[in-house]
Amino acid sequence: SHGYGLPITHSAECGWFWDVRPSPSAFQSHGHQARSETMSRFDWHTDCSYEECPPRYFALQVIQPDRCGGGTLSILNVDRLLALLSPFAQKWLSSNNYKITVPPEFLKKLGEQYIVSNLLAVKPEGKGGSQLRFRDDITIPLTPNAAKALDELKGILYGDRAEEWTIHLEPKSLPQGSIILMDNRRWLHSRNEVKDPNRHLRRVRWDARPFGSHSA
Question: Are 189 and 45 contacting, i.e. CB atoms less than 8 angstroms apart?
Fold first, then answer.
């Protein structure tokens, strides 16, 4: 009735659901290990930053929390972060001067190995808040000014001010059966090192429209 549509597939080989759990050899897509399939720390990012239009929302269901105290999910609101950015950085982050590589495990179309796009969409107050796409390890600035703007963003993101606003959700805050829903364009997320090899979350992504946008 409201145009929500079906969930979004993760890759050409993987459908709606993605299992976020360590796996040394049994990879879910294209025979490549995703960052979420390791026990390593996964720094600040938004999901699907390599897509022309990243999905608006994602959900994580806790199948098995980390019983050894690792795998803390940290979240940070984009508006808080961008309030510290200079006009110069906002201008260049909003320009189409960034090459973003599609990780091989998330390829959907043959030959579509990267996009060239912006990282930031600044919106006026009352228009739903600014939106960000970000994953440092797959992003290459294409001009010196774009590189300076990205360095400024990372300096703020990993600084003390951002830490003040970060919410840390430890395993005790997300017990087995918990579900967390996030706006993928307005919240960054990260996790620290996973300590329990049986930690297991399940992810689904989708887009949605406000109820008021539907015309009977």
Answer: yes
| Rounded Cα distance, 116 and 90, in Å | 17
Q: How many CB atoms lie within 10 A of CB 146?
A: 22
| CA 94, chain centre distance (Å) | 18
Mean pLDDT over residues 93-116, rounded? 90
Rounded CA separation 11/137 (Å): 19
Cα 86 from Cα 104, distance rounded (Å): 34
AA identity, residue 17: F
Tell me what pLDDT residue 215 has. Answer: 40
φ, ψ at 19 (rounded to 5°): -90, 115
In this structure, are residues 42 and 35 in contact, taking their beta carbons and an 8 Å threshold? yes
Give CA–CA dist 39/197, Å, rounded: 7
Q: What letter represents residue 194's amino acid?
A: V
Alpha-helical runs (H) found in the chain: 78-82, 87-93, 144-157, 160-165
Q: What is the DSSP letter of 95?
A: S
Secondary structure letter of residue 83 according to DSSP: T
Q: Would you give the DSSP letter of residue 105?
A: G
pLDDT of residue 25: 75
Alpha carbon of residue 16 to chain centroid: 16
